[in-house]
Amino acid sequence: MWKKVLAVASALLLSNAAPLSHAEPAAAPTPSRLVFAAAEEVSTLHGFTAGQAPDPETYWTVPRDLSMYTPELWQLLGDRHARISINMRWQRDFGPIPAGKPHFDELPALLRTAERNNVGVVAWLTVPYGDGYWATEDNLALHEQMVRDFDTWAREIGFRPRQVLLDLEAPLADTATLGNLPRQPVPVVRMLGENIDPAGQCAAMRGYERVVAWLEDHGYPATAATYSFLFDDITDGDTAFTDGLNMPLSRPGTFREVAFMAMRSVYAGLLGTDPGPSIHAAYIQDMRRWYGDAATFSLGEAGEGPYKDDLNEMITDTRLAAALTTGDVGIYSLDKALADYGLDGVARLFDAVEAPLAGAELERASTLSPGAIAARGLIGAENILAGALAAGVSRQPNSWPPSC
After folding, report:
1. In the predicted model, what is the mean pLDDT of residues 215-240?
2. Burial of residue 299 (number of CB atoms within 10 Å: 0-12, 13-18, 19+)
3. Is position 10 within any domain?
4. Residue 104 reports pLDDT greater than 80
5. Which DSSP state fits 96?
6. CA nearest to 269, candidates 229, 236, 300, 297
């Protein structure tokens, strides 16, 4: 009798101590490779690549239009295990707000909605338009303060991004000047000459490496976005053109990922003709040579140039990028894609990244077109010009790979 009681008691104790199931916990779903830039006030910025810089005051005064962020969109993003790179603006969304400027408190609710729908968020950080907007050679000190203010704000609202993204680009005003190259080349030459400063380029590179180290030490995986122009610059072994743009160098190995932007739509605007999808294939080959699997690729702009009213062109380029890379495929931007293609179009782009080009389709899209050769030739000519300008002021450009 007692033996039976003890046996039953022992069985009960063991059953309470052990888990109900020995099955392995369900693995987290694999996130989509497609990552949209999101929540930037694109109406204000529209046209900067065509030579029109926005009024600096609109950084603070123009509210975002988040009306397209509907329950249906969030359901789609959640169903596709999406991540979105949300634009977060220092001294507007977080950090000290300048006297007399409005404080927009749009982001906490947006971030909570993303969390509820299991949508991953990348914190894409920018500074005021008048300070260059993106991470440039000249505004390093602002970024050193900005990331600290971001950390304070993120902790206050309980937000933990999947990654923090720094946009290593030319200052907004210089980007607008470059956009006028075919029509007004003289200001571009003047800009390149005034910006060239090899010592400053080295200092900025090392400074952003400190920013990355600070982010990583505080638990924020750091990634970057930058121009593919870098690869037209380094063909002669130096970085003069990049320096002339005041675009910070990203030494391979600094960031966990570097998203290279080879925006076919931007080239179409510069040249007046579409270079075709092979412009992407050419840059992907270069970026993988120097950055390996840390290199990712970004397309844009949705609804512009060859993508205007033609979703199929963007689908083809998305499938091409998916075929030739192993990491994320970025698109600028979710807001523009929704405006031009609608929710069904965005869904088709998520489908596209899961169906990489192959065989004859991939070969056709990758074969370098005359337009792609011309596009890269234009940037290559600027690289030669930048080198000549540096030599003219007795400034030896920094070498590539950078060792300073």
Report:
1. 95
2. buried
3. no
4. yes
5. P
6. 300
Closest listed residue to residue 397, CA positions, set 143, 142, 197: 197
CATH code at position 171: 3.20.20.80
Q: What is the pLDDT of residues 368-385, one digit of tens each?
A: 999 999 889 888 888 898
In a domain, 116, yes or no: yes
Q: Is residue 2 part of a domain?
A: no
Domain span including residue 37: 29-392
Domain membership of residue 20 (yes or no) is no
**Tally of domains in the chain:** 1
Distance CA 61, CA 331 (A): 26
Contact 108, 155 (CB under 8 A): no
Whole-angstrom distance, CA of residue 40 vs CA of residue 88: 8
Helices then strands, each counted (H, E), the chain: 17, 8
What is the pTM assigned to this prediction? 0.90
Helix or strand run (H / E) with residue 86 = strand 83-89
Backbone phi, psi, residue 342, to 5°: 75, 175
